[in-house]
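FORM 7B: Structural annotation worksheet

SECTION A. Query
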Amino acid sequence: MAGDVPDASPEPDEEALNLGKALGASAETSIQVLPGYIPSRDHDGTGIGDQRESVPNAASTLARIGGGVAILPPVEGGWVNPSEQIIWEHPVIVYTYIRPEGLLRALPELRAFLHDMGRSTNQGEVVVEFDGRLYRITTFDPAGDAPP
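SECTION B. Predicted structure
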């Protein structure tokens, strides 16, 4: 008939795609990513010097949490200081997809790293993302103190 347009959409597959099987992957998957940010400026907006000093420590901690780690080159970012000015910087992002048992084992190490980085780079705040939440650390453990 005139005006009839044939349905060009494909028929749905009987079985949903099992990507892991199609790729030959193991059954273990990781869905939660844990990124951390290595700052390039302190809480006053002053450059912190060699930002790369913190990257290997962050990478080794995150590798123990997820079995591997990725390090992105410096990206552009900014944060608002108490005077309402945007301080532009170039943080390095380090991340892993977690394995729950690795995260539980490495929590004390992760905390120690984040608090040490906050102290040693004179941060007003250190952040870490996990499971859709941004955790803000604004008070750092004293050097050498074990977490509570």
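SECTION C. Observations
The first strand starts at residue 33 and ends at 38. The mean pLDDT is 88.

SECTION D. Sign-off
Analyst initials: ____
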